[in-house]
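ok so i was messing around last nite and threw this chain in just to see what happens. nothing serious, just curious
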Amino acid sequence: MYSVGILSGQEKWPEVLSEMLKASGSSVSGWLDPRLSTPLDTQQLIDFSDLIWIPEKIDDRMEEAIQVIRRSRHLSLGFPVVEFMDEAPGMVKLAHEARVQVQVGHHDWYDPVFRCTLSHISQPQHIRFTEYLPATEPHESSRQVFKTMVVDLDLALGLAGSTVRRVRPHASRLLNGTAIQIDVRVELHNGTVINLCIRKFSETPERKLEVIQSDGLITVDLLRGASSVGKYQENGSDITLNINPLWPPKGHRAVASTPALPGEHEMARQCLSFLHAL
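result:
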């Protein structure tokens, strides 16, 4: 049984979360907007709670999240780590020192193009991400690659359900030393292999995911909004691959897709699942 404090600029979250917490035995200890409250009020809510939930980023600040960890409270964030890349390394170190758990959201999981494939994915043997990034300023390209790598690895590791055994990176460079492609091979303890291919300065951006497993493969085009499942069938000495579209729904046309922001109950469910994990 846990008490959950909420730091947010929106008053709707206590009611949404309280309804979902009823069956778990946990409860909401309080809510406040740190921008309209005194530092003492914020500190007291943190101290009176076992876990703090911050559904959305507060004015691009992470001060409250860092304060929660410093005061040895578990922390659930409803937004992905790519929104606070600069603060993330320090927060990881603080969390280890304070022996608390931190959960972050991942909005790709709410993209229907991806979600419709989940029921078809079980025990992946190979997961491949292909990313062709558009041209950007030279000083921004490395940061863009790092953000892309973090998002893709987080998604792939969630699908694989195992821990990392070995990582092998490789960079392809121009004569002037500029890296134009980053390849990363990640080997997991359960035998799954993840391959990331991130190419910079591309005229035609791409973002594709392919999952290979014993009964076939799943493909997801996250930019163009299309996904399919293929099943291998043996017919004597021949092996054929039958491909069935999953998204878009029948009668609809594929359109460019962006990660959908989760709705209220989906975000609250993230916090609830975190409670169960604790």
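not much to say yet. The chain has seven helices and 13 strands.
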